[in-house]
Fold this protein.
Amino acid sequence: MSTNVLPILHTVSVKALRPTQMTVGMREVALKRKDLQKMTTGRTGTFLGGHSLPAVIGPKGRYHIVDHHHLALALRQESIEQVLVTVICDLSALDKDAFLTVLDNRAWMHPFDASGKRRPYGEIPKTLDKLSDDPFRSLAGEVRRLGGYAKDTTPFAEFLWADFFRRRMDARDLKDDFDKAAGEALQLARRGAAGYLPGWSGPDQ
């Protein structure tokens, strides 16, 4: 006999959400803001009703989102006050150190800065508005939209792609001509050197 288990949904203040990573691609955030701005009030409500954010409850009952940081930051910048959260695990009984260790070991955390360097847990921002920009994360998102690789369930897959591009491209090129840089990155994504990355679609024929 099978049993359908419904997800546990909570309505949470967007400002109260805690990130589990240090950076986002601000260009990605801007694209999500544009999508939100195009929606009518009713459509926005429908959209938010179908797009909950996965989160872990940590010490003091705080909600730590483990995915969709770009959408969450876009919601905050658009002054949307509340969002639905899907609780994937309640770790509120743990102390802070144990909680952070569990997040890290279960790939629910990405403590890497805008240079791709691992940082201490304490440097992860406590609020969404303190997230830093990683332009290579924006590049990774654009390459996926262009068909350079497939969407994958591997945690923080886009950051792995961002680091791949970071080692092969100059950040100044992204600033000078993002579209041109995306075209170059698309070609890099199709090379065999990227074969270890999640969602790799194979080399050019």
Remarks:
- The radius of gyration is 18 Å.
- The CA atoms of residues 30 and 74 lie 7 Å apart.
- Residues 135-191 form a domain with the Helicase, Ruva Protein; domain 3 fold (CATH 1.10.8.10).
- The first strand starts at residue 8 and ends at 13.
